[in-house]
Description:
By secondary structure, the chain is mostly helical.
Amino acid sequence: MNLQFLVDGALTGAMIGLGAIGVTLTYSILRFANFAHGEFIAWGAYFALGVASALGWLVAGLAPAIGPFSFGWSVVLALLVAMPLTGLLALALDWALFGRLRAANPITVVMASFGASMTLRSLLEFLFTSSPAYFSRELQIAVRVGGVRVTPDQMALCAMAAALVFGLHMLLTRTQTGRAMRAVSENPALARVAGIDVDRVIKVTWFLGAALAAASGVMAGLIVQIRPFMGFDLLLPLFAAAILGGIGSVPGALVGGLIVGLAEAGAAATIGAEWRAAAAFVVLIVMLLVRPTGLFGARE
Length: 300
């Protein structure tokens, strides 16, 4: 059997996992499913595209490709700018909408997130049209590693995803902010009584989740293309990964993303690309029948 799908699945899974981390963080701390999270992926990609284009125009030396990669330093710097910009977008959305609905019924907040999602997506389409955009159109020569072909871009993006997840893990487990986030996730009222600034934790959660979504968007833009609907197309896989791994578990979101990515790639390689999404959800349904809390989810 051709194992090439493992490479494609791992890369897609890493991209989905980064986005799913934001979904699971938002749910565990804010207690609602944010359907606008997919739009942070698209906005992050367009932020990066705009910054990379501006840098490439201002400083010509930043635009050419770096060694074997298809992108130049302008894209690397654009990623570092797009992540905080997308985090600020999430904070602005929380200030304008979700913060005012904090005490509302969870269904109300979920419906508001639907409205926010459509608004952000329509605004992107208005500003950039529906035509696809690209960070680079450079062709790459894949190298053979252990019987499969891997491009330099794929290796770099997997390394970036691993570094981001490791950094987030260190933040959550080794810092005061991470401990505060875990405390608010367990019991917000008790955390507030203990002196934890819950409002600050909420802001950090929005910022981190959106920043990781931006990284996921840049990955998607480099792998495929950039479109206003790219976040919407990834929304169901994001939630599937978060549920599969266990809501509230950051490692679970990443593992769930990898499983979803591998299931989609395996289905495309064996029974046809039209069954990609179906295969991922079959895996999800089987897992929930066996373990309803997900792989790493704790029982209430």
